[in-house]
Design a protein that fits this description.
mainly alpha; 68% helix
């Protein structure tokens, strides 16, 4: 009986899992590195509080900095909560 490509891939992956448990962890590290790189790449504005976009006299919005700071602070808390949850899942995977 011949295995199709998907079955072969699953068999090879499960065989490899018996050899090295670090693959899933290394893949998560790569995902986190890519996420960190994308934070600045996809930022639609300046991180610098002195930037012109935050100064009304330079054509910017005086309230924009405060709005972004509030939203980014809320996002930070959400990320922390999710990271803590993921760490709990990770420890659960180790039967801790």
């Amino acid at each position: 009986m011949m295995l199709d490509n998907k079955e072969q891939e699953i068999k090879m992956k499960s065989t490899k899992e018996y050899i090295d448990l670090s693959d899933p962890v290394n893949n998560v590290k790569k995902l986190l590195d890519k996420f960190a790189d994308n934070l600045e790449l996809f930022a639609p504005g300046s991180f610098d509080g002195d930037a012109g976009e935050y100064k009304g006299f330079e054509g910017g919005d005086d309230k924009l900095y405060e709005k972004r700071f509030k939203k980014l602070s809320a996002w930070e808390k959400k990320v922390e909560k999710n990271i803590n949850s993921l760490m709990s899942d990770y420890l659960y995977s180790w039967d801790k």
